[in-house]
Amino acid sequence: MGNRLGFGLGTLGRDGLAAMVSMFLMFYLTDVLEISGAQFAMVSAIMVAMRAFDAINDPFMGVVVDNTRSKWGKFKPWILIGAVAWAGSSLLMFADFGVRGWGYVVLFTVVYLVYEISYTINDISFWSMLPSLTDDQAERERIGAVARIFANIGLFAVVVGILPVTSALTEVLGSDEAAWFAVVCVLAALMLAFQSLTLLFAREQVNAPQEHTRLRELFGVIGRNDQLLWVTLAMVAFMTGYGITTSLGVYYFKYIVGNEGAYSIFAAILAVAQITALICFPAISKRLRRGQIHLLASTLMTVGYLVFLFAGTSLVITGVAGVLLFTGQGMIQLLMVMFIADSVEYGEWKLGRRNESITFSLQPFIYKLSNAFAVAVVSITVLATGIDTAKSAADVGTGSAWLFRVSMMVAPMLLVIASYLVMRAKYVIDEDRYAQILADLTIRRSGG
Questions:
Q1: Which residues are CB-contacts of 106 (< 8 A; sequence separation ≥ 6)?
Q2: What is the CB neighbour count within 10 angstroms for residue 276?
Q3: Where does this chain mainly localize (predicted)?
């Protein structure tokens, strides 16, 4: 229970703060700071390039964490360092220094680089701790489910509250910029508070030999773990689609539906659906195998996207589509963590070494690379449909509205289907195979 809550609660503030950047930074730039179209295009290109570059660097941070030896373990020192730097860079990103125009673009580039590096340090060290907490699949699912539940509570608290809270704070503080900065201050403080619970109460339980990994061995560790590579490919496709949909959500309600206030209500419905799916996951996994859960979740998302596409401006039908989408997404979100975690034992079994952090460095790699692709699609969509200069839904034509829907719903649906097909064809670590691997490792670890 200490590991479930100590590790799980650590995600509560993390994902709330991360959502401010991954889901709302572009909206902040266009609708709060109101930067020009040329500057928005430049900032988008910078974000894409930096996330892609930083994603490639993630495995190198995995080597650093894996080779760390301290009395606090190899994960906790980096969790702390990353959290403090991440909080500080988040504050700088939403601070109003009075700089506008191309000077702001230069300042943004520097701050965003620091943000990406600090997020990498924290994210890799935090999630790579998960396989060391237990090697029992069922308990790992419970810990992962608790972590994802709290992560989604933090995320959806921001998604649901960001527009009404910033609107109310604007009345009090006198400007949109001050309101958004106040929200980030609160989220940064919460992130640090809940991360401290992980540092205090999470305990490593898996006793496995730890070998020093040389830098030149890095790509061999990743490249020879074929299961990790297939998971990475499949989940980059899946998370790209998810990132496109969620990033375009606030634009959808403001400029397509014409009801910006409905966004928070819709987000609350999605939060309940996704968190319910995560709560029910351990019970579902007792009755269905992981492959069956993956098929069920992918089917729910595909149907949800189709309903969403033809929902028009009906909030009821849109709500039904959202429930289907995010119920399936919640299941796949947890499955992704489990697939990567099981790849740790697979790598140890195949390669003779246990590299939790290098293996889990592929998770932020997935998030960043997919987010880079999503940012590219979102920025192209916003510029191509004229939303960057629109003031309301009346300024968006029918053709532009359908182009927006294709970007937000059709492209992500195809990516979800492609992700499932890759996993179905190439991922072989089912429950039986994992049990065989773990039995073999148990013998090896005992010197047999």
A1: none
A2: 15
A3: membrane
Check if the beta carbon of residue 301 is closer than 8 Å to that of residue 325: yes
HSE-CB at 284 with a 13 A cutoff on CA atoms is 22
- 213 vs 64: CA distance, rounded Å: 9
Amino acid sitting at position 33: L
| Residue pair 206/134 in contact by the 8 Å Cβ criterion | yes
H or E stretch covering 172: helix 137-173
Spatial separation of the C-alpha atoms in residues 206 and 344, rounded to whole Å: 12
Check: CB of residue 388 under 8 Å from CB of residue 35.
no
Domains for the chain: give ranges and CATH numbers. 2-200+215-440 (1.20.1250.20)
10 Å Cβ neighbour count for 189?
14
For residues 213 and 358, is the Cβ–Cβ distance under 8 A? yes
How confident is the model at residue 11, as a pLDDT?
87
Burial 373-405 (b: 16+ CB within 10 A, else e): bbbbbbbebbeebbbbebeebeebeeebbebbb
Among 120, 121, 108, 122, smallest CA distance to 47 is for: 108
Helices and strands counted in the chain (H then E) = 19, 0
Burial category of 55 from C-beta neighbours within 10 Å (exposed 0-12, middle 13-18, buried 19 and up): buried
Query: What does the pLDDT look like over 127-165, one tens digit per residue?
Result: 888 878 887 777 878 888 888 888 888 888 888 888 889
pTM: 0.74
- Within 174-225, residue ranges assigned H as helices are 176-201, 218-223
Angle (nearest 5°) at CA 55 between 54 and 56: 90
Q: How far is CA 77 from CA 4, 116, 237, 362, in A?
A: 20, 18, 32, 20
Cα Rg of the chain (Å, integer): 21
- Within 8 A by CB and 6+ apart from 406, the residues are none
Q: 331: how many CB neighbours lie within 10 A of its CB? A: 26
* Confidence at residue 362, expressed as pLDDT on a 0 to 100 scale: 78
Alpha carbons 381 and 371: distance in angstroms, whole number? 15
- Which residue type, as a one-letter code, is found at position 413? M
- Answer yes or no: are the C-beta atoms of 308 and 321 closer than 8 Å: yes
**Distance, CA of 357 to CA of 352 (rounded, Å):** 15
Low-confidence residues in the chain, pLDDT < 70: 206-218, 448
Produce one character per residue of 96-108: b if its CB has 16 or more CB atoms within 10 Å, e if not: eeeeeeeebbeeb
CB-CB contact of 387 with 251 (8 Å): yes
